[in-house]
Amino acid sequence: MMAPLIEVEHLTMRFGGLVAIDDVSFTAHPRSITAIIGPNGAGKTTVFNCITGFYKPTVGRLTLRGGPGEFLLERMRGHEIGQKARVARTFQNIRLFPGMTVLENLMVAQHNKLMRASGWSLLGLLGVASFRRAEEAAIELSRLWLERIGLVADADRPAGELPYGAQRRLEIARAMCTEPVLLCLDEPAAGLNPRESAELNELLVSIRDRDGIGVLLIEHDMSVVMQISDHIVVLDYGRKIAEGAPAAVRNDPAVIRAYLGTDEKALDG
Ligand SMILES: Nc1ncnc2c1ncn2[C@@H]1O[C@H](COP(=O)(O)OP(=O)(O)OP(=O)(O)O)[C@@H](O)[C@H]1O
């Protein structure tokens, strides 16, 4: 087994008197899809918000080893976690720039890289060869991702005009254009029809197998979770109640109990 990409140890997050995450530990590996599941309010999004620096954990250590080195995420600010530790995320609600074209959305994601190549100066932007090369590489990466998500023909359309499923794929492509080592996806299948969610599965599997990066996934749609996850972590009321391979988790009595009496979809997706 490869060394973990991210190691979450004793993560605890309190909001006043409310314990949203209570001493949760788990690991996620490169070249694998790790899903975090659990009923509403279990603490899944809070785990993401701690990993991506939106919240500072009350207790816990979040170690990321991959790409450029080793990072203790709980000590870093959100933008550093994105740019230095190379963790990318998408959100439950779509956050594309709807008035920009599909291609522009992918180029904007590479803004930091381009500005670095310019030496952060106007002169650099106007004349320096390194900027031109970086710009060409950025266009090339955008084109590659347009192909991967099947949107080459839509490159010049405003992103807001795309069907919902295509917007979801574009968001994932945009995150991939930042060249992350860890990709965190918050409910990417929400609102998708069965064909779109099958396309999403294919895309995520290809990100794992072709790009070799680690995917951390919060998802309610069990047809996605059970089909593509390598490892599942189950939260309930802020605690980890189970983890393991899909087949084991699906038959775990504690997991079945946690889902009984909720309006979640059945575990047999
Ligand atoms: N900023 C905050 N301030 C206070 N309480 C919060 C905050 N963020 C989350 N919580 C609480 O923490 C608990 C866990 O919420 P979280 O959103 O992480 O759950 P979730 O598993 O992602 O739920 P869902 O599946 O509904 O998205 C909930 O009780 C929620 O109300």
Automatic annotation (TrEMBL):
InterPro entries: AAA+_ATPase (IPR003593), ABC_AA/LPS_Transport (IPR051120), ABC_transporter-like_ATP-bd (IPR003439), BCA_ABC_TP_C (IPR032823), P-loop_NTPase (IPR027417). The keyword ATP-binding applies. It comes from the Bacteria. It holds the Pfam family BCA_ABC_TP_C. CDD domains: ABC_Mj1267_LivG_branched. Keywords: Amino-acid transport, ATP-binding, Nucleotide-binding, Transport. One of its GO terms (molecular function) is ATP binding. Residues 6-262 form the ABC transporter domain. The keyword Ribonucleoprotein does not apply. Belongs to the ABC transporter superfamily. This is ATP-binding cassette domain-containing protein.
